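Aggregate trends can hide what the representation actually does to any particular protein. In the encoding step, the backbone of a single protein was reduced to a row of integers, each denoting a local shape. The record that follows shows the chain in one-letter code together with its fold in token form.

***
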Amino acid sequence: MLTDLPNLLTLSRIAAIPLLVGLVAARYPVTDFVACVVFSAAAITDYFDGKLARSRRQQSDLGRMLDPIADKLLVGAVLMMLVGTERLSRLALYPAVVIMLREILVSGLREYLAGIRIGLPVTSLAKWKTGFQMGALGTLLAGDGSAHLLHLDYLPVSWIGEAMLWIAAVLTLVTGWDYLVAGLRHASAPKVPGPQGRGSMPRPPG
């Protein structure tokens, strides 16, 4: 149900997006710091919603649909705000583009595979990618202004965030390629004829 706690946590990530957009647009050190806190809290819910769904046996098709949508909306909104407010260096635009394209690719693959009732499992490397990606975005939202606010001027916060973004982009390329190969393998698999003789499902491995 929509009111189950795991689904509410997932929806909270979507609800956080307008607040994050407003905080980033304000361009004050204090709002940058708050944006980092809000984003970090939203990112943490990504771990707990799945964990709670499994422990409470509240896994559902609704939750499986909402979870990747919430993640991609959150990441996409933050990346666009960072670019739009010129918070990324020109060099950091490249990993940002890679990450956005990968999200679109995986979304398309999941949509296609869902149509033939095949799931696309999350790999361990993909979890590392998500960790670096969320850490990078949170750090970039904080920015050097937050470091100054906390009297940590010696910390190159923006540089650290961009370095993490590059690591996330490399992991994104690797995992994106793995997902693409898996999708192409299923797409080219022999089809099992349906009741009316139409092929719809790939043949399971023997």
